Amino acid sequence: MRGVTRSTSPLPVTLRDRRPDDLPILSRWLTDPGAEWRRWDAPYFHARTTTQTMQTYVAHLAQTPPDPDEQVIDVDGECVGMVNRSEEPPEGGGWWDLGILIYDPAHWGSGVGTRALGLWVQDTLDWTDAHVLTVTTWSGNERMIRAARRLGFRECCRVREARVVGGVRFDSVRLDLLRSEWEGVQA
Ligand SMILES: CC(C)(COP(=O)(O)OP(=O)(O)OC[C@H]1O[C@@H](n2cnc3c(N)ncnc32)[C@H](O)[C@@H]1OP(=O)(O)O)[C@@H](O)C(=O)NCCC(=O)NCCS
């Protein structure tokens, strides 16, 4: 399936720059070692390393202006997560990898992620010279895989049994989407 073909969220989902009043929310969710999102977003990394990385990241956020490669996911005026992107080297090569994280499980499964990722694809195609976009996850993260597929991403790489989560081996999964395949975000 290519492009967004259905209304994915009844909620008003927007992407915007981070504001100072988002910081307490970001800090609380990102640095909580027991947060549920950690069981889904790269859970194969050691928890202590993730905590340290997040503490450093939050300190960085507090000291830096908003970055166009990171946007807050806003639902009805509330910061519920973030999207980010990074260019795979070399610079100007046209390959960008996208990330998404919705902090509170209460917001999962109601279309917010698909909607936010669709907006992020559009933003990335509008503001970069991306030729191809990727999303990278693991085979246990069905919500992530299905959200990407819903938007037209196709599986392009699967490294079998490469990730260990809770003592069980899962595949590392990457999906891609060409600029030429993108049909735009449904209003
Ligand atoms: C992954 C994430 C962004 C998806 O966003 P979401 O708002 O929860 O997902 P959506 O409601 O848009 O649904 C996406 C798809 O997953 C399906 N889905 C919803 N709940 C599900 C569940 N419990 N199990 C399996 N699939 C589920 C939906 O039906 C939809 O598929 P469809 O379009 O084929 O029907 C969000 O769950 C999240 O941030 N999770 C924690 C962090 C994370 O995993 N980040 C990604 C790291 S790579």
Automatic annotation (TrEMBL):
- Domain N-acetyltransferase: from-to ranges: 13-180
Give the Gene Ontology MF terms in alphabetical order.
Answer: acyltransferase activity, transferring groups other than amino-acyl groups
Q: Keyword Transferase, does the record have it?
A: yes
Q: Which PROSITE patterns match?
A: GNAT
Pfam families for the chain: Acetyltransf_3
Q: Which UniProt keywords apply?
A: Transferase
InterPro entries for this protein: Acyl_CoA_acyltransferase, GNAT_dom
**Does the keyword field hold Iron-sulfur?**
no
Q: Which domain of life is it from?
A: Bacteria
Write down the PANTHER family for this protein, in alphabetical order.
N-ACETYLTRANSFERASE DOMAIN-CONTAINING PROTEIN, SPERMIDINE N(1)-ACETYLTRANSFERASE
Q: What is this protein called?
A: Acetyltransferase
**Organism, as annotated:** Deinococcus aerius
